[in-house]
Amino acid sequence: MDRKRLESYAWLLVEKGINPDVGQDVVLTASFDQIEFVRMVVENCYRRGAGKVVLNWTDMPLAKIEQRYQSEERLSALEPWEKARWQYQVKKLPCRLWLDSDDPDGMAGVDMEKQSRTLAAKLRKIKPYRNAMENKHQWCIAAVPGRAWAKKVFPKLPAERAEEKLWEAILSCSRANGDPIRNWEAHNRQIHHRCKVLNAKKLVALEYRASNGTDFKVGLIPDGIFCGAAETDLSGREFNPNIPSEEIFTSPARGVAEGLLVASKPLSWQGALIEDFSIRFHRGKAVEVKARTNQKMLEKMISMDKGADYLGECALISYDSPINQSGILFYNTLFDENACCHIALGRGFDNCVADYAKYTPSELRKKGINDSMIHVDFMIGTRDLEIDGVTASGEKIAVFRKGTWCF
């Protein structure tokens, strides 16, 4: 891959992704797949004025070994040094940048029961730290190719060529060709304008229908709002939490959802693929799940805590989005969720309530924002998806027809 293009992408992730203040620390999480690119990002953080860049290295093969050999007690523990690291983040509020390159099948073969129990136990211990940082710092999730991931996406190509082709797809879908900064400034303006139009309609519910069996209605929070693209934290600092991102999203009202949602793409979760699945809701809760592969994993996911089987997000994305037009199934939620409409189980977003900073976390929960230690997106968009918005008077407004926007 041409170095200048990678340098341009690295600058995009720093400048428009996390947008660090002068002197602000950065926590960068990455695997060993693209060390040279990680160095580019670190240098750009310092060029941008970061105080200190802290690297968290991850490795899925090592995580798989740990799952096999460590006891549940040790896997579930939040060690003193881990607590200190989280306490540092709560105190310093660094920017956080995660470069995802995970193998979609990287944890295949591990004991799913053990993995689910230990993950749930550890996330419960981490959750208070994350709550303390919520909406107070900038963060961004982006991607770089991993060799195993690239071979999953392009199985017929030699490993090196598959990795190069995945780089091309990542850069293209991330609007990182040409002038990435200008591309994202224009993209943010367009998304924000569409949010403004949608919020003016004052919808109280969304109704979904598709020929694959999706037939679903979800209630919206009375003073909820649709958001998308660049966000601002409580200090007014702008950042783009996902690169790429095509979505306009809101957090629905907890406990107000009825019907069936049929997934249109596989879900990669915790190193396992859940394929050909559906979820049925009653009174807002997931009461039945079916999957051709890894149904037990799906069942474990929605039982992680008391909020895991309720909804945290409804995201609207045109079926003709650049990611879907690429024709590539990425087996990666960051990309596949931005290919078409998706729904998320688990935690909702506080900033999807108008003037959310005026309310306490407890008040936001009462308004209908779901709370959970997970937030898992799954794709429901199809070429024939129809979505109607419902107003307080009962009027129905066409929002999506034939998988894309009506306005």
Question: How would you describe the overall organization of this protein?
Answer:
The structure is a single chain. The chain has 407 residues and is an alpha+beta fold. 35% of the residues lie in helices and 27% in strands. It has 13 helices and 20 strands. It has helices spanning 3-18, 35-47, 60-69, 72-76, 80-92, 112-133, 147-153, 159-173, 180-199, 295-301, 322-325, 333-336, 361-367, and strands at 26-31, 53-58, 95-100, 139-143, 203-209, 215-220, 227-228, 231-232, 238-239, 248-250, 252-262, 267-269, 272-282, 285-293, 311-316, 342-346, 375-379, 386-391, 396-401, 404-405. The strands form four sheets. Strands 5, 6, 11, 12, 13, 14, 18, 19 and 20 form a nine-stranded antiparallel β-sheet that branches. A five-stranded antiparallel β-sheet has the order 7-10-15-16-17, with helices on one face. It has a four-stranded parallel β-sheet with strand order 2-1-3-4. A hairpin with a 4-residue loop joins strand 18 (386-391) and strand 19. Helix 1 (3-18) packs across helix 2 (35-47) and helix 7 (147-153) packs across helix 8 (159-173). The longest helix is centred in the N-terminal third of the chain and has 22 residues, at 112-133. The two termini are 38 Å apart. The relative contact order is 0.13. The mean pLDDT is 95.
